[in-house]
Write a structure and sequence with these properties.
Layout lengths: L2 E2 L9 E7 L3 E9 L5 E5 L2 E3 L6 H4 L4 H16 L8 E7 L1 H5 L4 H11 L4 E2 L2 H12 L9 E6 L4 E7 L2 E8 L3 H8 L7 H27 L13 E5 L1 H10 L13 E3 H11 L4 H4 L13 H15 L3 E4 L4 H11 L6 E2 L1
Parallel strand pairs: 2-6, 6-7, 8-11, 11-13
Antiparallel strand pairs: 1-14, 2-3, 3-4, 3-5, 6-14, 8-9, 9-10, 12-13
Helix pairs in contact: 2-4, 5-12, 6-11, 7-11, 8-11, 9-11
Length: 337
């Protein structure tokens, strides 16, 4: 068992942020420099599909829980680099939020980590994503972050250090790929139905986030320069790789520009292929092939509804936000090593 964290993040030279997502579990390892900045060490990932069937059953499947716990054991081993002491935070998101049997997963997680993972509400997840993605915006620059996960999409807006508005919508690449039969080659009618459902779910959320964050208090009209749109999460990073013929990998996806036109065209093309055929396309990994085009449909819809013709990929999403909030003391530590 890991020892429950009793130190603050600022008292240790290493910080770990573990994102227990609906599709993937991702660990961000950071080292504090002499000047107090956080320097990336590594970002190991395991595709778990924790949200398998949750949209249909409302429960975490036993085999998905087993995959998740195995992935946590493997990822924890990554924190043993160089014998450095560190502090970690772990957070669960959409699949665990939605599951009636979430304790069947969270309790053994606590045994492995030494502390219970934070179960983020949708608003708290949006806030945390924005904390990470906005950390490199220029002072005073308006920004909207779109984080597409397996079970939900978070929309968050504001300025650096000034989170104005955020919403979590139950529109995710695993959830909708399962619901509309998009994991393999999909019929045109199924694709059209999925696109309509995505737009219907995201339209009021996008409008509300823009209005709350940037509207003039008197006229309620959105004013000022168009906000920068940042895309975070597995869909954004994998789309960057797919749209650059596989040239992007991991942190190298950072700042890749994704146009609405290219994202939508690639999604529709991939949806005509079965999962095995998708993996033969440059930049499409086997473990994301079933859900990537659905995630790209969601991104395209969000861009259109936000009035943007492109988004910039940021690898500073939920995990980086968790690390920053851990250091700031606004989220609690879960374990230390």
């Amino acid at each position: 068992m890991r020892q429950t964290a009793s130190k603050t993040a600022s008292a240790t030279p290493a910080v770990a942020a573990l994102d227990l997502g609906t599709n993937s579990f991702l660990l961000l390892l950071l080292r504090e420099t002499a000047g107090g900045a956080l320097e990336r060490v590594s970002e190991p990932c395991r595709i778990v599909r924790l949200g398998q069937g949750v949209d249909r059953t409302g429960r975490l499947a036993p085999e998905a829980i087993a995959r998740g716990l195995r992935a946590i054991r493997e990822l924890l081993a990554e924190t043993a680099w160089a014998g450095t002491a560190g502090v970690g935070i772990a957070a669960a998101t959409s699949a665990v939020r939605d599951a009636a049997n979430r304790d069947e997963f969270l309790a053994p997680c606590a045994e492995l980590l030494g502390g219970r993972p934070v179960l983020l509400s949708g608003d708290n997840e949006a806030r945390t994503v924005f904390t990470g993605a906005s950390s490199e915006l220029a002072p005073g620059q308006a920004g909207v972050c779109v984080d597409i996960g397996g079970g939900s999409t978070e929309l968050a807006a504001g300025f650096p250090g000034d989170y104005r508005a955020g919403l979590s919508v139950n529109v995710g690449c695993v959830r909708l790929a399962e619901r509309f039969g998009l994991e393999n080659a999909a019929a045109p009618d199924a694709v059209a139905t999925a696109r309509a459902a995505i737009t219907a779910a995201l339209a009021p959320a996008c409008a509300q986030v823009l209005r709350t964050a940037f509207a003039d208090s008197a006229t309620r009209a959105v004013t000022g320069p168009a906000p920068a749109v940042w895309a975070t999460g597995g869909t954004a990073n994998t789309a960057a790789s797919a749209l650059t013929a596989g040239a992007c990998r991991g942190v190298f996806d950072h700042h890749t520009r994704l146009s609405l036109k290219d994202v939508e065209a690639a999604a529709l093309r991939l949806l005509t292929l079965d999962a095995a055929e998708r993996t033969r396309q440059p930049g499409v990994p086997a473990d994301r092939a079933a859900v990537l085009p659905t995630g790209m449909l969601i991104l395209a819809a969000a861009l259109r509804l936000l009035g943007a013709n492109a988004a910039t990929v940021s690898t500073r999403g939920l995990r980086y936000g968790l690390a920053l909030r851990l250091r700031a003391g606004t989220l609690p530590p879960v374990w230390h090593w």
